[in-house]
């Protein structure tokens, strides 16, 4: 039996989808435990290139049970559409289970996300407008809808009508938009419930049985440590915890069963949306890294927006690995840096003239300036290399330097976007 969490040490888009897909081959269950369709996990395998949003990254293996835990934000339409798209592209029908307690993203969550960003105008967060912040706000405000409620129509109608008392008041007076009608929202959910039904289950019992049977479970994090509401760059964070520690709650697995935590960090930095980003670079320097990054440039898998670019940030990544409780680290996208003569790395922050190794609170993060050190580049293509020893000396030195600086063991090095481009160390 093993339970492994795969989580981001940075701002998200570290390449978690790739390693989840890679490790899913030897797993029985892959679980998403937080977030919703705002995720974008890129996977390139024999079926083609996919950007998964709602679905766990184990969907390409028929023997894997893919679970959406109670901690996620279930967009029913997006879930069904993504599943159908997968099948239409030749992927065998995946096994998909959804916790009966998972809450449902409703049309007003998506609208409120959009209207609030419009209202904030210049000060907007750069939301993916998937309804995530309004959804989690309602969940903790106790006016959310659980998946099981869709199958009790009276209860569903009462709950949505109750929520609309509040929503319609805001729509009318704050946002000056048209109000909404409960019957329409209920009708749309009732129409798809037969398609949803086979997937809905009691995931507490499912995991209890799976653990008893010694099944191998992968917990798939979304976004990264910097987006955690408590430990990240609040309020430029997401609205559910992105930490491995939350996987226990968001999936429904006893904390002591999670024995391996793989924190994924990029060999450089990228960040989508607003917020402080200390090692950020601009202009041509950023443009070139963006063009060469990812599998075909660094553009959001969900929004298509150009990602903000930066050098590797030791301060943020060490902290990211700490809050994730990493037992090992994957350094991803190392191949991308092969064009540089010299590679700058942010090794400390300088805040009002003082240098620090410690990741600061958001108010001080905004005042932080990067202290850079320069490493030698290797100026060669490394995507076909599968053994650490075979990497160019400069690349090995770069990996060793990062490992020593962050203080967590780098056990995996990803050298290309395809499934097999991985070095196990
Ligand atoms: P996730 O959200 O953490 O799953 O990451 P994304 O899929 O949003 O972004 C990572 C991007 O890098 C995607 O375009 C991947 O195909 C790509 N990718 C992942 N690992 C590697 C790698 O080692 N090298 C290269 N060149 N691209 C990679
Ligand atoms: Mg992503």
In words, what does this structure look like?
The chain has 425 residues and is α/β, with parallel strands linked by helices. It folds into three domains: 2-101 and 199-262, Adenylosuccinate Synthetase, subunit A, domain 1 (Adenylosuccinate Synthetase, Chain A, domain 1); 103-195, Adenylosuccinate Synthetase, subunit A, domain 2 (Orthogonal Bundle); 265-424, Adenylosuccinate Synthetase, subunit A, domain 3 (Adenylosuccinate Synthetase, Chain A, domain 3, Alpha-Beta Complex). 33% of the residues lie in helices and 22% in strands. It is built from twelve helices and 21 strands. It has helices at residues 16-24, 76-88, 107-120, 132-140, 153-173, 182-196, 203-212, 244-252, 283-292, 314-324, 362-365, 393-406, and strands at residues 2-8, 29-32, 41-45, 48-52, 65-68, 73-74, 95-99, 103-104, 200-201, 216-220, 260-266, 269-271, 280-281, 308-310, 312-313, 328-332, 342-351, 354-356, 368-376, 410-414, 422-424. A hairpin with a 7-residue loop joins strand 20 and strand 21. The protein is globular. The mean pLDDT is 96. Residues 8, 12-18, 40-42, 44, 294-295, 301, 332-333, 335-336, 414-417, 421 line the site of guanosine-5'-diphosphate.
